[in-house]
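Hey L., structure's done. Input below.
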Amino acid sequence: MMKIAICDDDNYVCTEIEQIILEDSIKCNTKVDIEVFYDGKELISYIENEHYFDLIFLDIELRTTTGIKVGNKIRNELDDYISKIVFISSKTGYERQLFDVQPLNFLDKPIDKEKLIKCINLALKLLDKEKKIFKYKVGHEFKQIAFQDIIYFENKLRKVKITTINGTDEFYGTLENIKMQLPNIFVTAHVSYIVNYIFIEKISGETILMKNGVLIPISKRNLKDIHHLQIQFVKELRNVNL
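Output:
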């Protein structure tokens, strides 16, 4: 699912952009989640509260601030260099000021539907290349790690502990939401654990021995899913060796 933010103090522009995105998503069978903001401070506050966006359409001439200031805050203070930003304006001449924000593109007003769709498609292509990467946020810092380097996720009350080949980290989230972002090499072993099948050393009784030496419990309801994944991997290996 592509998470998109629209930030413009003009209600009509927000509605127009949202409608174009929704129509294109239906046509291309792409799932989108859109949030609309009429003020830059609202957008910043939302991101600060452990949210992120894949793509942000950001008006430069906002009433209480400028899109350039908002963009700089996203990049420099929130340390988010992952979200793609498309600036919107009825004026030109901002190119030099926008350089540090590293925008994906620039849209003129009135909005050109075809150009907007091209921005979405470009963002989708970039996101597709990033599918091998898990993104999460610790405080104001955005982090990312390759899925192949993640050993397991563990539920820790309101936080999630991520164990990787490089160590551990913790961030706010739920295993339910994380599971939706993961490729099929990850499987739920227990209500409190999601494991990377690649790092399973041995399955014995009601526990999994991971390659880093950690024992993880398996609930009976999830044992079947793990065995199913095991069968799939065996079939794939046979196909490779044919």
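The helical segments are 11-28, 40-48, 67-77, 95-98, 113-129, 175-179, 220-241. The chain is about 35% helix and 35% strand.

-- N.
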